[in-house]
Amino acid sequence: MSAIAATMTSRPSPMWQALKKNRLSWVGLGLLAAIVLVALFAPWISPHDPLQQNIAYRLEGPSAEFWLGTDSYGRDVLSRLIYGTRVSLLVGFVAVLIAMLIGSTLGIIAGYVGGMVDRLIMGLVDVLLSFPTLLLGLMIAAMMGASLENLIIAIAITEIAPFVRVARAPTIALKQRDFVDAGRALGYGPMRLMRVHILPNMVSDVVVLGSLWMASAIRTEAALSFIGLGVPPPAATWGSMIREGFENILDAWWLTVFPSVAILLTVLALNLLGDALRDAIDPKTRSERA
């Protein structure tokens, strides 16, 4: 019996095997890990102070001293790009985490309770989905004002609806399963059934959606910062850097190109990782790859 147990313990899971076979997942994971390391070690790898102004070096192109050039205030673009990584990852992660917690909770409640509660929650979701994500974030950010906290809240609100739908659908199916009926027979209350029996069986779907929507959150943050509703200056954000470069696009191409490439790489890494996780948890996709 112990030998059988040891064999079962050491056997890799089908999800892990699917991830190992997907080379693009490792590309996304490696790229995302590099971006996270840049954000964590920004004070040590940044060659200059991102806020230090020096008009004498205004709008200088890439050189040995300033690898990615300088902006209209003489600030080092590379240093600001590195520190902007912190803002984008922080906003993306925290906003998605808030949306995931609220949306998953509402989705499980709607799917499990049903009836009027389900109709009320899904009616609210339909209202949120009737607005384009960027437009809804723009409206909320404009009403609340430009700050890091308000930006996170605005983006989180725009991303609650998808998590509600993703959590609700499996909840409706899971609440009819035998193990949930067995829990009811043992006298477990609805809160315990939702927390212990339903949530663990659908958390993988929510995590996959979170990785994909984190990319959307980073794009939304850059768009709101571009129009002045993001983190107030002089903080370095990719969206505000692109906005400044847009005003000098004919004379200083590097101001828009490098922040745009940073957004592209980050979104690409998250999408590759999210697609790989989605394929790994989908039994049909795993069987096709086998």
UniProtKB/TrEMBL annotation:
Gene3D superfamilies: MetI-like
Keyword vocabulary terms for this entry: Cell membrane, Membrane, Transmembrane, Transmembrane helix, Transport
Entry-linked InterPro entries: BP-dependent_transpt_permease, MetI-like, MetI-like_sf, OppC_N
Pfam families: BPD_transp_1, OppC_N
Highest taxon in the source lineage: Bacteria
Predominant localisation class: membrane
Transmembrane segments annotated in the record for this chain: 24-45, 87-113, 120-144, 198-218, 252-274
PROSITE patterns for the chain: ABC_TM1 (PS50928)
Residue stretches in coiled coil: none
GO cellular component, one term: plasma membrane
An example Gene Ontology biological process: transmembrane transport
Signal peptide annotation: none
Topology within the bilayer: Multi-pass membrane protein
Domain ABC transmembrane type-1 residues, every copy: 85-274
Entry's localization field: Cell membrane
Tagged with keyword Transmembrane: yes
Listed PANTHER family: D,D-DIPEPTIDE TRANSPORT SYSTEM PERMEASE PROTEIN DDPC-RELATED (PTHR43386:SF1), OLIGOPEPTIDE TRANSPORT SYSTEM PERMEASE PROTEIN APPC (PTHR43386)
Family as reported in the entry's similarity comment: Belongs to the binding-protein-dependent transport system permease family.
Protein known as: ABC transporter permease
Organism the protein comes from: Pigmentiphaga aceris
Lineage of the species this protein comes from: Bacteria, Pseudomonadati, Pseudomonadota, Betaproteobacteria, Burkholderiales
